[in-house]
Amino acid sequence: MTEQSRNKLAWLILRITLAGLIAAHGWFRLLNGGVEPFGSWLQGQGIPFGFWVAAAITAVEILGSALLAFRRLVRPLCGLFAALYAMGILMLHAGEGWFVVGAGRNGAEYSVLLIVALLCVGLQHSTKKANYLD
């Protein structure tokens, strides 16, 4: 295996993994009745139309993760997801501390890792047309 093919495989694995994690986040919220409580929480944080914002975020996570997996709109989606998760840090996770489990609960560490990985995938993604596996 050449260095170039290893690099392509590594970026493919990272992009698909990110898409899977983001999809799981959105699908879990949708299938377990989490959109309405999320919307109510957003409304309580001063976000107008909280339910619709929560529904839109959920839809973007579900539909956008599929597009990301199939290498469509990678740069804008990575930027959008990074912005969404940065807002999650600002609005919730930072107040809970750093650690998600163990030394804390519901902290920012996982979101920071997602943001960095999304930004790396978005930055490396070529604007030229290529096949789905690049």
Number of strand elements: 0
**Structural class from helices and strands?**
mainly alpha
Element order, helices and strands?
HHHHH
**Total of helices:** 5
Mean pLDDT: 93
Sheet with most strands: none
Strand content: under 5%
The backbone outline, from C-alpha atoms, is globular
Alpha-carbon distance between the two ends: 15 Å
How helical, in percent, are the residues? over 70%
Rg from C-alpha positions? 16 Å
Query: What ranges have pLDDT less than 50 throughout 5 or more consecutive residues?
Result: none
Description:
The protein has helices spanning 3-31, 35-44, 50-69, 74-96, 109-124. It contains 5 helices and no strands. The mean pLDDT is 93. Helix 4 (74-96) runs antiparallel to helix 5 (109-124). The protein has 134 residues and is mainly alpha-helical. The longest helix is centred in the N-terminal third of the chain and has 29 residues, at 3-31. The two termini are 15 Å apart. It is globular, with a radius of gyration of 16 Å.
Structure characteristics:
134 residues; mainly alpha; 73% helix
List the helices and strands and how they pair.
Blueprint: H1 3-31, H2 35-44, H3 50-69, H4 74-96, H5 109-124
Describe the structure concisely for a colleague.
With 134 residues, this protein is mainly α. It contains five helices and no strands. The protein is globular and about 50 Å long.
